[in-house]
């Protein structure tokens, strides 16, 4: 029933930046834990960043820590992923996802996410 839509993907040279966005009309993002996943060529899907519904705590994977920043804009009800210093290994399809499950005993990275978008392609190459 929840339809998430990602945007902002595209091609960028190594060292460049992209800003991904995720929206869903009628859905209040603050009720959910929200996450960004990616699926690279020949790789398994992995969580790259998420924000908890409990207290707004964030998680970033070691591979993107210091380069990517997740944020939730409550005025526009939009989830963002700011990606800086992009590397070729960041290439892949990026998905936003939502989950209502409790995060009091788990981090947002440990949740099984129920609602997903169709993804947006990010290609980093020279």
Structural topology:
Layout: E1 5-7, E2 10-12, E3 18-23, E4 33-39, E5 46-51, E6 58-60, E7 68-73, E8 78-83, E9 92-99, E10 115-116, E11 120-124
Parallel strand pairs: 2-11
Antiparallel strand pairs: 1-3, 3-8, 4-5, 4-9, 5-6, 7-8, 9-10, 9-11
Care to describe what's here?
- Helix content is 0%, strand content 44%.
- The chain is an all-beta fold and 126 residues long.
- The strands form 2 sheets. Strands 2, 4, 5, 6, 9, 10 and 11 form a 7-stranded mixed β-sheet that branches. The protein has a 4-stranded antiparallel β-sheet with strand order 1-3-8-7, with no helix packed on it.
- A hairpin with a 6-residue loop joins strand 5 and strand 6.
- The relative contact order is 0.31.
- The model has no long low-confidence stretch (mean pLDDT 94).
Shape: globular
Q: What is the count of DSSP helices, taking H or I runs of 4+ residues?
A: 0
Assembly form of the protein:
single chain
Helicity, in percent?
under 10%
**Can you summarize the main beta sheet?**
7 strands, mixed
Average of the residue pLDDT scores: 94
Report the structural category.
mainly beta
Give the tally of β-strands: 11
Span between termini:
40 Å
Order of helices and strands: EEEEEEEEEEE
Beta-strand content? 35-45%
Radius of gyration over alpha carbons?
14 Å
Low-confidence stretches: none
